[in-house]
Amino acid sequence: MVDPNGSGRRTPSADRSRRPPSSFVEDANVTDPGIHEAFETEWPDCWERAADLLEWDEPYGTVLDDADAPFYRWFTGGRLNASHNCLDRHVDGGAKNHAAIRWEGKHGESRTYTYRELYTAVNAFAAALGELGVGEGDVVTIYLPTIPELPIAMLACARIGAPHSVVYAGLSADRLATRLEAADSDHLVTCDGYYRRGDAFNQKRKVDNAVLSLSRSVETVVVDRLGGAFEHDLADGQYDYDTLVDAHAGTTVEPVPRDAEEMLFLMYTSGTTGEPKGVVHTTGGYLAYAAWTARAVLDLKPEDTHWCTADIGWITGHSYVVYGPLALGTTTLMYEGSPDYPDRDRLWEIVDRNAVDVFYTAPTVIQAAMKWGEEYPARHDLSSLRLLGTVGEPISPRPWEWYHEHVGGGECPIVDTWWQTETGGHVVTTLPAIDGMKPGAAGPGLPGHDVRILDDAGEEVEPGRAGYLALGRPWPGMARTLYGNDERFLEEYWREFSDPEDDEWIYFGGDAAVVDADGYVTVLGRVDDVISVGGHRLSTMEIESVILEVAGVAEAAVVGAEATGVYAYVSVERGHDDESAIEERIKERIETAIGPIARPEAVIFASDLPKTRSGKIMRRLLEDVAAGEELGDTSALRNPEIVGEIQSSVRNC
Ligand code: WTA
Q: Residue with the nearest Cα to atom 12 of ligand 1?
């Protein structure tokens, strides 16, 4: 394992602790400071509070079954349907005319779905999927951008008990094909194209390429996003979304009661190897946890308009655009465009116009906004905001303060939420009305969790020292396994610190962190070969292997740097000295093979890459160079002379 020491950046001091304003505390969902202790004494039954946020068709018998640990089972014997919980019960409970989704399109269009309208749309599409032969347990792949048909398709799948696997719309045809194949998925929901920045982008061509490369046939439903502006043909096995839905307008489909432990969805995420991991989430535990954390951490109430800017193609969008808010009967806002189009005040204009109450975004978005300047948020009335949140990367104190002051008007608490695809929902964060905030630290960990910072030997390190962020107790929203690969699940998360002989299971998700004397955790970043950039999780190995396919490239090392994106360091073979041509080919190749999200910010050429005496490329050093940080000791290098050359290339790029 990699030593986390040395990647330490900052430790917030206790005296920076801030209390939320009393106006916030008065109306907050969770205000009892005794909750941390109550969860300790009641554990694991404390998690009934999460299950109680849902309506069950059949009550569960046991809260936690740990007989097969670490393959934990939650709320066993219970049956429920996620679509019923996100729709029917609100419609029946008097909220039918309440807005469920407010959608803001790229070009200023907007659409609102009330809970009743969303219910109708979901039922019609559920009926259409049934007609296409989708049954309980069949995995449906969804490859859509941020348009209402995406949550509609997810909820339609949930309604009929078909797990969905949403693939981020910006991923390439190759990646879509691998995911269809790995999930044994014979059904796909996609669209003709969508707008990226100002331009129409052909999504269907990617789909056709992906499907062609597969050995089996895939029934495909195509949403017409671009209308007449963009013609597309439908081949055999391809169906027009509107035609299908019109044919089933007004149909209601009874939600299928699912066992709490049955799969609600699969989410592919990058692992340390190039092969993606299909993280399995369940109907009972996941939904209860998404709802509970949305209520306790994001403080969501039915009357709120909540805006989580994450793409639904990633876990944050699943938990906090779709399932958490809708389970609670909240209005969730979806935005198709980018933060700086048509202008750099776009986010704040949307907050203002929709009177957004809770705003949840990634530190990269805040850093960009900070760079653009405070005059953009200042153009708008942001006084509707009550709570702000961040996710995806560590947030440093400076952007934290900027966010607090220029977006929150100094009045909104900020929750810095650490979690992962595998955790299903928030794990390390503050409860906004209870725990003081420390800019730069995520927080103490939610009630019911056992957050530990461990050294290589699995011992807890003292405050102030970096270690591995590990979780000593299971929780309802945790991943149950990796699709079709229990062994890899054990290997990736449970081998490092667990003691199977003693039946002691400790989860390790790949991050390093440091804890202060008050138990506040500052997350330092990944210690494995996974990088998180702008809320996207990428595997460095996967990108490197694509770069190595480019003619002329001898060696490649990819790192992610906070706020700067993906940096690729490359050395070229003798005789290939046209660096700019190689750079272009690298960028193109990455875009086609993986997608634009993995496109490097910079390709840095060097005559050699810094290596240890055993010949391993020193990625940590390359990360520090990319971030412009002080370099530590380079004496362990076989070729220390290369460092200066690389530093000056970075400065000049
Ligand atoms: C990183 C996104 C610091 C971390 C929810 C984790 C964070 C990875 C934070 C998971 C945070 C997430 N502070 N780092 N508040 N939140 N991360 O699976 O490295 O896309 O392991 O889930 O993002 O990324 P994933």
A: 392
Write down the domain spans for the chain: 22-80+283-523, 82-256, 529-652
Tens of pLDDT, residues 6-64: 333 344 444 457 999 999 999 999 999 999 999 999 999 999 999 999 999 999 999 99
Tell me 562's DSSP state.
T
Question: For ligand 1, which residues put their CB under 6 angstroms from it?
Answer: 269, 314-316, 391-394, 416-421, 442, 509-511, 523, 525-526, 532, 537
The sign one gets for the Cα dihedral 291, 295, 298, 302 is: positive
Pocket test for ligand 1, best of 493, 523, 530, 539 (most atoms within 8 A of CB): 523
Report the b/e string of 373-407 with b at 16+ CB within 10 A.
eeebbeebebeebbbbbbbbbbbbeebbebbbebb
Give the global pTM. Answer: 0.90
Q: What does the pLDDT look like over 438-490, one tens digit per residue?
A: 999 999 999 999 999 999 999 999 999 989 999 999 999 999 999 999 999 99
CATH number for 529-652 (one of 2.60.40.1120, 3.40.640.10, 3.40.50.300, 3.30.300.30): it is 3.30.300.30
**Which tokens sit at 383?**
């006084």
H or E element at residue 334: strand 331-335
